[in-house]
Design brief:
Blueprint (H helix, E strand, L loop, with lengths): L3 E3 L4 E2 H9 L5 H8 L12 H12 L20 H5 L10
Antiparallel strand pairs: 1-2
Helix pairs in contact: 1-3
The structure holds FE2/S2 (inorganic) cluster.
Length: 93
């Protein structure tokens, strides 16, 4: 049976265990290698499960695990908005 850990990035428990066996044995390296926690929910649904898998596979204490670097999701901005001096500026009087 396949257990999905990160629904946003379509990662299974097997994917995470394989990555840990390859040496990606911290949350930050798992994030960089698999994009774990980089989906729209920003890890709200998967980082806790990933911590448990890491603890089980490596024996590391959950308290020792560093939080992965959080970056807010960005929104695309049309180039026309950046190129137009008449819109979005603070000097509009
Ligand atoms: S479930 Fe992993 S980032 Fe959303």
């Amino acid at each position: 049976m396949t257990t999905v850990v990160c629904r946003c990035e379509d990662l299974t428990e097997e994917d995470i265990v394989e990555a840990i066996e390859e040496g990606y044995d911290e949350l930050e390296t798992l994030k960089r290698h698999l994009r774990l926690g980089m989906g729209p929910c920003q890890g709200k649904a998967c980082l806790l499960l990933a911590r448990r898998i890491l603890r089980r596979e490596t024996g590391k204490d959950v308290e020792e695990m560093k939080e992965p670097t959080a970056r807010p999701p960005s929104r695309p901005v049309p180039f026309s908005l950046l190129a137009s001096p008449d819109e979005g500026g603070e000097d509009d009087d």
